[in-house]
Design brief:
The chain has 124 residues and is an alpha+beta fold. The chain contains 4 helices and 3 strands, in the order H-E-H-H-E-E-H. The model has no long low-confidence stretch (mean pLDDT 87).
């Protein structure tokens, strides 16, 4: 289910189709640190996608009393979903899969350790 900030950001994309983080911030009033995780979640689930386009945005900086221009990545809505019945594509990993991955990482570390030892001995 889409809820909270993800739902707010999704609804903006449904209405406007293409947005930048800056536009989402201004339209929703959400903190940028809340927008990015919500947008990333929508991106990972294939609802929106990053484009190659950049939007030029000019904004007033009250702290400097000047206008600054920035370039922001544009994201497009690519799939509409039923927000109430949406389930994330994120799958939980089983304990056995985690242990298998851990053993693989340990083996890789051992091999790297051996390579480093060999290199050190060659330098001496």
């Amino acid at each position: 289910m889409l809820s909270g900030n993800r739902l707010k950001v999704y609804n903006l994309f449904k209405k406007h189709k293409s947005l930048t983080d800056y536009q989402i911030e201004k339209m929703s009033g959400l903190n940028p640190n809340s927008i990015r995780p919500a947008r990333l979640s929508l991106e990972k689930n294939g609802i929106i996608k990053r484009t190659e386009h950049k939007a030029e945005v000019s904004f007033y900086r009250s702290s400097h009393k000047d206008v600054k221009t920035g370039y922001y990545t544009v994201y497009d809505l690519v799939k509409t979903v039923d927000a109430k019945n949406f389930t994330s594509t994120k799958k939980k990993m089983s304990k056995s899969q985690i242990l298998k991955n851990l053993r693989t990482v340990k083996k890789s570390i051992k091999r790297l350790d051996q390579v480093v030892s060999d290199l050190v001995s060659q330098l001496n």
